[in-house]
Amino acid sequence: MSLLDPLLLWWHKAKVRGKMDRVFSRGRDPYGYDGRSAYEVERLSAMQKALGGRRYARALEVGCAEGAFTEKMAASCEKLTAVDISSVALARAKERLRVQAQVEFVEADIRQWSPAGRFDLIVLGDVLYYIDKPLVREIFEATFPKIASWLSPGGRLMLAHGFAGPQELAHRTGFRERFERLGLKLVSEAAAGPEAGPVRCLISVLESARK
Ligand SMILES: C[S@@+](CC[C@H](N)C(=O)[O-])C[C@H]1O[C@@H](n2cnc3c(N)ncnc32)[C@H](O)[C@@H]1O
Question: Would you say the CB of residue 86 lies under 6 angstroms from ligand 1?
Fold first, then answer.
């Protein structure tokens, strides 16, 4: 880590937060999860399937946005922590899940946040590429061991990132490979979304081998 990193992180956090707040301030559901986007509907349904019908005692969703997938996760989690950098998105997620007492919301940049305990499920959906930028690359790389250390022994990590074409697919595969290099084992991997569509989503489920 360089001496400049705290400054770069402060700058980049403000940039990402500003961008996401602007996206969500344009109106509800900017990505069309409500059915306007066949891709998003298929993606969320494939992500839910990849949860494997298990129950999770303590789960974390990074980049929960307005809570569309949080709502699906909540049904299979005893306790669920949902983190997002955007206060605009989080306000909507809180409203959507207001009757789900097992869900707590945290406004934070994942690069600066640390949980109090460990999780048996962590979900990162369409979030890592927002922080994979040249000037903050070292901070980005440091996020992988940090997230891996939050998994309980045998805990599962789901990565779900959209890609358009082979170059982006290789980039998204790189997220999974970083976790594999940290000792996580790949359980399953598949592409989701309309086959003929321009964008598909790589969904990888990994497991912590730590005892
Ligand atoms: C495209 S949305 C994806 C929402 C959801 N995870 C899904 O798979 O549908 C990305 C979300 O990640 C959040 N985000 C981006 N960078 C973040 C960061 N560094 N820390 C926490 N949340 C972040 C954004 O505010 C946004 O709500």
Answer: yes
Q: Measure the CA–CA gap between 209 and 199, rounded to whole angstroms.
A: 32
Which residues are registered as beta bridge partners of 204?
A: 159, 189
State pLDDT tens for residues 89-109.
Answer: 999 999 999 988 899 999 999
Is the whole model's pTM more than 0.85, yes or no?
yes
167-187 residue pLDDT tens = 999 999 999 999 999 999 999
Tell me the CATH number for domain 5-207: 3.40.50.150
- Sequence spans of domains, the chain: 5-207
Calculate how far, in angstroms, residue 211's C-alpha sits from the geometric centre of ligand 1.
Answer: 30
**Cβ 67 under 6 angstroms from ligand 1:** no
